[in-house]
Fold these 2 entries.
Entry 1:
Amino acid sequence: MSEKKETLSIIIPAYNEAGNISRTAQALRQAMEAEHIFAAVYFVDDGSADGTWDEIQAAAGAWDMVRGLRFSRNFGKEAAIFAGLSAAAGDCCAVMDCDLQHPIEALVRMYRLWEQGFEVIEGVKEDRGRENVLYKGMAALFYKFMSAAMKLDMSRASDFKLLDRRAVDAIVSLPERNTFFRALSSWVGFKTAAVGFQVQEREIGQSKWSTSKLVKYALTNIVSFTTTPLHIVTGLGVLFLILAVVLGVNSLVGYLTHRALEGFTTVILIELIVGAIVMLSLGIIGGYIGKIYEEVKGRHRYIISTTVGLDAHREH
Ligand code: UDP
Ligand code: MG
């Protein structure tokens, strides 16, 4: 690792972003030098299949404040963020996207707030950029659920943040494997501020999220951050217990007054509904058991195959 220890570490997860690396590095260098911020950029290559790693090496050759970590395969953005946070040496760390959808000007504002003593500075989306209606709807539903479960407004949250060293250490030292960075930054507490930003258009390449990846992301985060679905199962159980008592009394009365032959349709409907709810509940419980199993195995969150500009290999 080079001698100089930066003040601000900028962590950038990159998955198939060959076209964006040098652009982003240059834009950051320019802005940081103009603003007199002593910053290093940590690109985390999340198992890209294109020339991303070559680009990162080239960027590191062009500017000595560029560092790179390369994953042995695609471990996902969360893992990339954590790898960057673990490797970062700065007094504060920022996380931003590789596609410049998170404006650098907002990063500077975050840094200034950090200088004023704020420890967790959240990037808050002022609008969600261009997304299709279905995506917006699903995202709204997910964030509504998460916000209710966490008692925090998550609807405009993003992964664009700047954290003080103390907050970074607190997050990095958490033993859990299934993390949700977006929410963990508020979970750790500390002196918090928010910076609003407009989501920029992605100019090069495409969004790396497929629908299935997003659904998986949403489910993992719900399971890792809240046990509300388990309470919903219990709630459904109570509801059906009440129904059972009512219908039970009704049936018994019918039997005792010899009016019990009808109601075949009711029986079928009840069986179907109860069956569906039992299966659904088992699925929810199974989801949690699956996550417990993953956590208990305690595998590495990611595996680093190579680094550039850094001397230590660290695996988590
Ligand atoms: N990304 C990643 N691993 C993945 C998917 C995405 O590191 O498996 C990175 C990607 O390179 C980018 C950031 O996460 O820097 C945000 O991804 P993208 O721009 O595709 O998402 P969107 O802006 O559409 O939400
Ligand atoms: Mg993007």
Entry 2:
Amino acid sequence: MRYLITGGAGFIGSHLCEQVLSLGDEVLVLDDLSTGRFDNIAHLESGGRMRFVLGSVNDAPLVTECARQCDAVMHLASAVGVRLIIEQPVRTIETIIGGTDVVLRCCARYRKPVLLTSSSEVYGKSEKVPFREEDDRVMGPTTHRRWSYACAKAMDEFLALAHHTEHRLPVVIVRLFNTVGPRQTGQYGMVIPRFVAQGLRGEPLTVYGDGKQTRCFTHVRDVVEALPALLADPAARGHIYNVGSQEEITIEALAHRVIELTGGRSRIEYVPYEKAYVQGFDDMRRRLPDLTKIHARIGYAPKRRLDDILRDVIADVRRREAAAT
Ligand code: UDP
């Protein structure tokens, strides 16, 4: 089996490459290295079963050529991170909707099974937790940039389901919830790599708002084990699945735990949202997935806990900082 993985040099993409290679499959990575890094997959090159193509998912002839050489596609290429989304709104909307349009058209034309990665952001600021795949979505106004990401991802889902109905495209959609692990960078705003880097340097941990908002963090390895299994299951086609964890923690409690695990030298600094992000930002208070559907389909349950994630990220940040000096 040969997979095309768009965004394969990114944080999640690179772990997914490792996963499919470990299953004995081959992979063609298409990535424009805008947020991904070749370093993330360089160690996979020597095996001879991974090939890298530098290019964009918005380049239809290139995507067509890549898709034709593969048996199935996992589409991960996307703008990522709240900070990037807020600072580069045009790029966010264009790469998400435009890139997915190209990928889905190619897959529909050549009848390639495709997995589309969407996001828990599509639930918006719904307060009805846990979030079930069929639940209503609650969006803020179009003047608040954060919602462009949620709406773009929702359009991707609509388009995928439309191709499934009209063209019998074999497509499965996953909504990823706060995926974390080695190789994730804090550069685009993600909280765990940021807290860990701050804790290791003995700097204050910047908790946004009152810190009482909660998240459930999922180890990237749990996520990448689930994706090929869903894509391989014909009964999953035309469906949406949450992929996440139900270990819920406040951001304030997360900060305390990171301080403990990184040597206890840091303190917490509370930063108001208006200072943390440009104006026009809404944060979600709780984000908790209902995992009934994916558990029933492929028996999914996350195996790693928050402390496993934190230990792995701390080791990774230490390794990277040592390599940079
Ligand atoms: N956050 C924080 N300090 C930071 C970065 C993020 O307190 O330095 C908060 C952020 O406001 C949100 C949570 O941590 O409530 C998770 O943020 P992240 O960007 O990792 O993911 P999100 O869930 O917002 O997509």
